[in-house]
Design goal:
The complex is a heterotrimer of chains A (about 90), B (about 210) and C (about 400). Helix content of chain A is about 55%, strand content about 0%. Chain A is mainly alpha-helical and about 90 residues long. In chain A, α1 packs across α4 (about 75-85). In chain C, β9, α10 (about 295-310) and β10 (about 315-320) form a beta-alpha-beta unit. Chain C has two domains: about 5-230, Peroxisomal Thiolase, Chain A, domain 1 (3-Layer(aba) Sandwich), CATH 3.40.47; about 250-395, Peroxisomal Thiolase, Chain A, domain 1. A ten-stranded mixed beta sheet of chain C has the order 4-3-5-7-1-8-12-11-9-10, with helices on both faces. Chain C has a two-stranded parallel sheet with strand order 2-6. The chains are: A mainly alpha (about 90), B alpha+beta (about 210), C alpha/beta (about 400). Chains in contact: A-B, A-C, B-C.
């Protein structure tokens, strides 16, 4: 999968997994912060993203603190997945 | 011990396909299931609280019922945070969500327990969601009884108001399991208006709908 | 607080002992009960240290004199053991006074339900385990075991449950609704809980170290802790001299997050401050705080902040006893009430095990060695639960 496709897929998976009701993939800017401002996700959402990484991409994150950089934005998440799969 | 004049000033009843506020139907919808009903009801209120969709059904139902009661006094509530108490009860505890979580830890072929589901495997999380949304910081507890217990609710409310600092108390029954919902939530205040806080009155609010 | 409330019965079962006295001996020996799972069959068997009671359900049936055909789940078996001990130690039978039984649990019958989850469909003989899944069923079975037919309820507010049970009991006594209450909590280990806490990344892979700067999480445990509290209307020191008095209590919500405390310590502060205000006791009088101290980054930070706000730099001696028993969830408030009362009875402060390097932000640290021959007059016990539910209890030395 190339990066733009991965980004689009990730947006859809995030919306579904995190129950972001009424959102479309076009509503998410891949460079916008996922946490704090931007989408305003919280710590439970971060843990859900860790499960998503394991379930959909077979990547395991042991320390929740690692998640901060990886989940900064959809873009950084896509970069991380691509780097792990390489 | 002399109690101040306590009256029930607002009450919400959610049962079957109806929501009643102070005895009047404010929402009615035949839905395919309870999740659908709770989401439709939310949209009907015009409430803008995206976190709602991350909650389990018990928390959604708790927030929905609380909204009808607290919506137009939300600003007043924030000035009284620590002087507002909340006491909820039911008979199924968080069983509806417990079983969802259990399924996710019992299936070795699909072993991905969801933290967001596990969070709601306690009946007081819905109560916690009400506190978070409205900044209620007083006494708060959740009791499990075999069936609706009007006498206990009346006693518990009197106990809370024995502390002079208590100004308001949200109390009631939030029973929910699979597609069955049975909720009575009411607000008690130091007021001369409303229904007197008595066991029979509370019982009647529950049984008349 | 106008009316005195006396504690006349204690009951405890945990990874450090099957009775109050066994628990006491372990505390005095600074001997932890944390190990690895033997009885519960979990995928995480060797991964997480855990406070498992080294007794099978069959062992409990024997201990309690119940036939194994009775099908009582593990949570209830633990509760029965602790309630039986508490009631017996109060020197008054169940029907002697108007009594409330207030139990609490988060797990209920889940240990059995999850064991037979795939078998229920084809083995109807297992269906009675589903009937007993509910939290309330646990309490009712305990009530039947001790022949209690009075007021009964179950509290379920996560880790503050048993403390809230004690608070309700005290309030019912104050209002004259009952004269006595048996209050506490019970929770058995289950895969449900282990996996749930693991999904929230709250478990520590080593022994938990509360208040340590390198702490990573909690160790789960199982157990039951109950106390019997009596009104001064019926208290009779010739029948039973009280172990301590319950001088104050409070329960608040910090309205912050479903599973995390506000790091500013508001939850801990408000619960402790209100408790002291109720008892009309100055912070400087507190001898010891038995902390919630789970060992999670969030709790220990916010609890330390709360203590700092209330006590300034002069925080009394404090420790968490969770490195002894593990975090026993709904039972924690009950077990730790017992440990707080034992601290008064023995003039001893329990050590905060495992921790070595403390949070530099605070000019105080927990007690790390057993401290005997102290003058323990007032002990605060903290229990903070998910949903922002924060409770504190204040126990005082009894002179009556």
């Amino acid at each position: 999968m190339n990066k733009p496709e991965l980004i689009e897929t990730l947006k859809g998976q995030i919306i579904e997994r995190l129950n972001l009701e009424g959102m479309q993939t076009s509503d998410i800017n891949e460079n916008e912060p996922l946490f704090g401002e931007g989408l305003g996700l919280d710590s439970i959402d971060a843990l859900e993203l860790i499960v998503l990484l394991e379930k959909e991409y077979q990547i395991k994150i042991e320390d929740p603190k690692e998640g901060k950089k990886i989940f900064h934005s959809v873009n950084s998440l896509a970069d991380f997945i691509i780097a792990q799969k390489a | 011990m002399k109690s101040p004049a306590l009256h029930i000033t607002k009450h919400v009843r959610i049962k079957g396909d109806k929501i009643l506020l102070n005895g009047e139907i404010v929402f009615q919808s035949e839905s395919i299931n309870l999740s659908d009903f709770l989401n439709s009801a939310y949209r009907n209120t015009g409430l803008n609280y995206p976190k709602y969709f991350k909650m389990d059904n018990l928390a959604k139902a708790s927030i929905l019922a609380a909204h009808y009661i607290l919506n137009d006094i939300e600003q007043e509530i924030q000035t009284k945070s620590e002087r507002i108490s909340i006491c909820l009860s039911n008979s199924s505890s968080s069983l509806d969500t417990d079983l969802k979580h259990l399924k996710s830890v019992e299936d070795p072929s699909n072993f991905f327990p969801s933290p967001a589901v596990f969070v709601y495997t306690l009946p007081n999380i819905g109560l916690g969601e009400i506190c978070i949304k409205y900044k209620i910081m007083g006494e708060n507890c959740f009791y499990v009884f075999e069936k609706f217990n009007a006498a206990f609710l009346s006693q518990k409310i009197h106990i809370s108001f024995a502390d002079e600092n208590t100004e308001m108390m949200l109390a009631g029954w939030v029973e929910l399991f699979e597609n069955d919902i049975d909720i009575l939530l009411f607000l008690t205040e130091k007021s001369e208006k409303g229904l007197p806080l008595e066991t029979e009155i509370i019982e009647n609010l529950y049984t008349q709908f | 607080m106008p009316e005195k409330i006396y504690i006349t019965g204690l009951g405890a079962i945990s990874a450090i002992g099957d009775s109050v006295n066994e628990n006491l001996q372990s505390l005095l020996a600074a001997r932890s009960g944390i190990s690895h799972l033997e009885f519960l069959n979990s995928a995480h068997k060797n991964e997480f240290p855990i406070g498992e009671i080294k007794k099978s359900d069959a062992d409990f049936y024997q201990l309690l004199g119940i036939p194994s055909t009775a099908k009582i789940n593990r949570t209830t078996l633990l509760g029965m053991q602790a309630v039986k001990e508490a009631l017996a130690s109060s020197n008054a039978p169940i029907d002697a006074f108007k009594t409330a039984l207030i139990s609490s649990t988060t797990v209920g019958g889940m240990t059995q339900t999850e064991k037979y989850f795939y078998d229920f469909d084809h083995d109807l003989s297992l269906s009675s385990w589903i009937d007993k899944l509910d939290c309330g069923d646990s309490t009712r079975d305990i009530a039947n075991y001790i022949n209690h037919s009075g007021f009964l309820t179950t509290i379920s507010t996560a880790c503050s449950s048993a403390a809230n049970a004690i608070i309700l009991g005290a309030n019912l006594i104050k209002m004259g609704i009952v004269d006595r209450a048996i209050c506490g909590g019970t929770d058995a280990l289950s895969k449900f809980t282990i996996n749930g806490f693991n999904s929230l990344m709250l478990l520590e892979r080593d022994l938990c170290k509360p208040f340590d700067v390198d702490r990573k999480g909690l160790n789960l445990g199982e157990g039951a802790g109950f106390i019997v509290i009596e009104s001064e209307r019926i208290y009779n020191p010739s029948r039973k001299k009280a172990y301590a008095q319950l001088l104050g209590f409070a329960n608040t919500n910090d309205a912050f997050h479903q599973t995390a405390a506000n790091p500013d310590g508001q939850g801990a502060y408000s619960a402790m401050a209100k408790t002291l205000a109720m008892a009309n006791i100055e912070p400087s009088k507190i001898s010891y705080i038995n902390c919630h101290g789970t060992g999670t980054p969030n709790n220990d930070e916010s609890e330390s902040k709360g203590m700092h706000r209330l006590f300034g730099d002069n925080v009394p001696m404090y420790s968490s006893t969770k490195p002894f028993t593990g975090h026993t969830l709904a039972a924690a408030g009950g077990l730790e009430a017992v440990f707080s009362i034992l601290a008064i009875q023995n003039n001893t402060v329990w050590p905060n095990l495992n921790s070595k390097n403390f949070i530099p932000e605070f000019p105080f640290k927990p007690v790390t060695e057993l401290k005997t021959e102290q003058n323990i007059q007032y002990v605060l016990s903290n229990s903070f639960g998910f949903g922002g539910n924060n409770s504190s209890l204040l126990f005082g030395r009894n002179h009556d």
